[in-house]
Amino acid sequence: MKKPKSKQLRIQSRTSEVQEIELLEKWIEFGKPESGSNPLSLPPLPAKSPVGRIDESTYSQFAGCTKFQQLPLSKNTKDGVRQAGYRNMTNIQRASLPHALCGRDILGAAKTGSGKTLAFIIPVLEKLYKARWGLEDGLGSIILSPTRELADQLFSVLKSVGKHHGFSAGLLIGGNEYDEEKDHVNRMNILICTPGRLLKHMDATPNFDCSQLQVLVLDEADRILDAGFKKEVNAIISQLPKYRQTLLFSATQTKSVKDLARLSLKDPEYIAVDEEAIAATPSRLQQKVMLVPLDQKLDMLWSFIKAHLNSRILVFLSSCKQVRFVYEAFKKLRPGIPLKCLHGRMKQIKRTFILQQFVEQRSVLFSTDVSSRGLDFNKGVDWVVQVDCPDDVAGYIHRVGRTARYDSAGRSVLFLLPSEMKMLERLQEKKIPVQFDKANTKRLQSVSGLLAALLAKYTDLQPLAQRAFKTYVKSIYKQKDKEVFDVTKLPIDDFSASLGLPMTPQLRYLDRKNVDKKMPGESNLVPEVPVKKDSVKLLRQKPTNNLFEESEEEEEEELDLLKSKETADGEEGKAIAADHLLPTTRVLKKKKLKINVHRPVGTRVVFDEEGNTLPPLATLADMIMKRYAEMREDMKTRDQEDKLLDRQRRKEKRIKEKKKQKRARDEELEDEDEDEDTRNVKKSKVYFNSDSEEEEGRSKVALKTDAISLAEQEELALKLLSCMHS
Ligand SMILES: Nc1ncnc2c1ncn2[C@@H]1O[C@H](COP(=O)(O)OP(=O)(O)OP(=O)(O)O)[C@@H](O)[C@H]1O
């Protein structure tokens, strides 16, 4: 708690504040860089050159300076920056801050991890400080972020660098309790928000007023301006005053004139500090691309994890369902390193907790693109593994940018399917120094067989696998870039088998005539990546009469593998071992199955109804075939259920949309009747550095969003299905 100041002290501090602002304004006016110039091209100022006012009419230069302390910044900001541990500026900070401090609009681009956050947080603080923005002045700045996690991170930077200022600041993100937020939001000077949540407040919070906005910031501007946020962003911009400063930052900046026109920028400074750089990605980042057939992606990922048990690994997959399945399945296989997962359908509290854990301990985080942009894991990510190809080059740059941040090193690997090789060309065209590598097949461990066993044992895993399969294929089908993503080239059946599924789920939208017509199990291997397929042999076999005939050697190998799992992994391993004889109807390609005549006969003698003895394997075969018939039936039912759910979802969406439109119409009518005066209700004071108030505004209970109700529906469907199983 701050000690209350005496009246005299308050007057004194106000006077010195006024004097400081006057000095800063004169200093900036004196040394402002030419519009369109690049401060980086100026010779760096000597470290010991004078700072601030030199005599009555002369001030020190600041364009070309290398240290924060040489910039015309308020003492509050300088103290905050110094205490947060920042001394020397990065290139994007050196190039953009002198312009931004003059109040100019900025379109800034610099590599990932190069310090763009401070390049917009500092001008926001300075602009409001120089405008003598007070708590009762209302909303002075909005900082938009595409994801909740990034918004949260920006909020932490703002709190640390701005802690000596007296502004109030709030974090508005989906998943927080809206009702709590709305009680505080009108008292905030700076808001950090995701577009959807901000729009909700603009639409629904009484007296929400942004008519005095001074600075608008779009972090990850290209993402915020792309089609995904178009509706929200257009609606937001239409409610903001045109006379304001606008700062746009991203590692992959938009150059679309249309986008910029939407923002009504005024002579923006285009600052791209790495345009001449040899690479578009950080120089300390080692990047590999590996050719991996679709049905071996999980084998490769598993082998990779097992080979890097002491690392912090961020794994990108293309959908929530992929993430859930791989996480749940690998967790049951216990690789020997903590596993975590993060996707947009998780509750916010859990998302925040998982990120925190990932930052704190070495582990593997399976994630969708929700963590591909902006996140700065402070202990550093050792590896970024892109199991599924990113949508485009920008997506690639942001994903790999989660490692090798600021001055640290990092490594990344991208798995490409043979049909996605065009992406490699795209990366090379954009000056991304990737090294094309062959897989080290000697150390490849197959998990497809183990997954089949897991799916047979854990009935709740099978629907996950099925959905992972479906969403992956659909994501490829929906991709815009058909040169890279060609659904007809996917080895659908092999992929399904690699997830451990006993049969390929139906894909209603796909014309299977055109899709790769390979027989299940037929190789999709390309010669460059010869992969050893025989590390796990038992579990994927042809549904023929020879179904259960395998060489003793093979069986022993399998049992050894399971036994070693048992000792290494405890109970989980035992469970798998007990069920290891449940095969899938899939086939190991072109495997020669031998009848082992020396094989000892089972000890149990089984009789048929007429009293004849049966070979022991016959009963086992019966049991297995029955189980697989059941599993197939289940899958069919699930297909039907999915169809119904899909229909229901679409219906719900339509109803919701209609309700929304009706509400908007009603509100418009109400608004016309409303007395204008009610809008100008006086705002009360909230102090920036009283964190508790902000914290109060944050969620304890996640909001019931569309996504959550879908998840609940899914859970319900899963429960239903597991009831059917039992
Ligand atoms: N001047 C500086 N001196 C030392 N470290 C800095 C400086 N500026 C930023 N950093 C550190 O560099 C890291 C990356 O910064 P930041 O998150 O702002 O990068 P970014 O360019 O926004 O990355 P991305 O494009 O991924 O969003 C952070 O850990 C930050 O604390």
Labels describing this entry:
726 residues; alpha/beta; Rossmann fold; seven-stranded parallel sheet; 16 strands; binds adenosine-5'-triphosphate; P-loop_NTPase; SPB4-like_CTE; RNA binding; ATP-dependent RNA helicase; ATP hydrolysis activity
3D architecture notes:
InterPro entries: DEAD/DEAH_box_helicase_dom, Helicase_ATP-bd, Helicase_C-like, P-loop_NTPase, RNA-helicase_DEAD-box_CS, RNA_helicase_DEAD_Q_motif, SPB4-like_CTE. Residues 293-455 form the Helicase C-terminal domain. It holds the Pfam family Helicase_C. Residues 650-663 have a biased composition (Basic residues). It is a single chain. The protein has 726 residues and is an alpha/beta fold. Among the domains are: 9-272, Rossmann fold (3-Layer(aba) Sandwich), CATH 3.40.50.300; 285-449, P-loop containing nucleotide triphosphate hydrolases (Rossmann fold). The chain contains 23 helices and 16 strands. It has a seven-stranded parallel β-sheet with strand order 3-4-2-5-6-1-7. It has a seven-stranded parallel β-sheet with strand order 10-11-9-12-13-8-14, sandwiched between helices. The radius of gyration is 30 Å and the shape is globular. The structure holds adenosine-5'-triphosphate (ATP). Adenosine-5'-triphosphate binds at residues 86, 88-90, 93, 110, 112-118, 251, 374, 376, 401, 405-406.
